[in-house]
Write a structure and sequence with these properties.
It is a single chain. By secondary structure, the chain is an alpha+beta fold. Helices cover 22% and strands 38% of the residues. The strands form 2 sheets. It has a 6-stranded antiparallel β-barrel with strand order 1-2-3-6-5-4. Strands 7-8 form a two-stranded parallel ribbon. The longest helix has 16 residues, at 103-118.
């Protein structure tokens, strides 16, 4: 898997679906994350303390963080437009999740997430612009998380016919499907 493409794909997404294996069973949540690299490859983010299953999580547990491109299932024309620069339909990161109960980490995470994911919006806002009292209340209601990445699994999206893609993406014309369940309606 060409990791630069995966890195770009993950960095462009503000949320992932996180599923963790805990002593009580599987738990899941949609969480805001950032890709962090400083000697090790990891995700950093946070989850609400009230999220069922995460509130008492202690130590490291196995987990998977799932990212996907815009929903275009069954809409070939949408695949030509949405996220056209990325060859990936989905990226799954497998690794180890640990909760971080440190107020400083939580405050810094709120600011980094805001700076990274919200600055490009039409009406951007940055966490430093928020009143400190509001950030304090927010930080008290979340718990930080660090997800050490052990393995990357990425699946290709298809490229519309004629795009000239030669990087291993399947070139599919929906009219050529052979399964009776996949033939276009006439």
């Amino acid at each position: 898997v060409p990791f630069d493409d995966v890195r770009t794909f993950v960095a462009a997404r503000a949320l992932c679906t996180l599923v963790a294996v805990t002593p009580g069973g599987l738990v899941n949540a949609h969480v805001p994350v950032l890709l962090a690299e400083d000697g090790s490859l990891r995700l950093e983010g946070h989850v609400a303390k009230s999220t069922i299953g995460f509130e008492g999580l202690d130590g490291e547990v196995s987990a998977i963080a799932m990212f996907q491109k815009e929903q275009d299932y069954g809409l070939p024309e949408a695949a030509r437009i949405a996220d056209a620069a990325s060859p990936w339909g989905a990226v799954h990161l497998h690794g180890r999740l640990a909760m971080v109960r440190d107020h400083g980490f939580q405050m810094a995470n709120i600011e980094r997430l805001g700076d990274h994911h919200l600055a490009a919006r039409i009406h951007p806002w940055n966490a430093p612009d928020l009143p400190r009292a509001f950030k304090e209340v927010l930080a008290d209601k979340i718990v930080g998380l660090v997800f050490q990445i052990d393995r990357v699994q990425a699946s290709h999206a298809y490229a519309p016919r004629g795009t000239g893609r030669t990087d291993g993406i399947v070139d599919i014309d929906p009219r050529e499907f052979t399964s009776p369940n996949c033939r276009p309606r006439t």
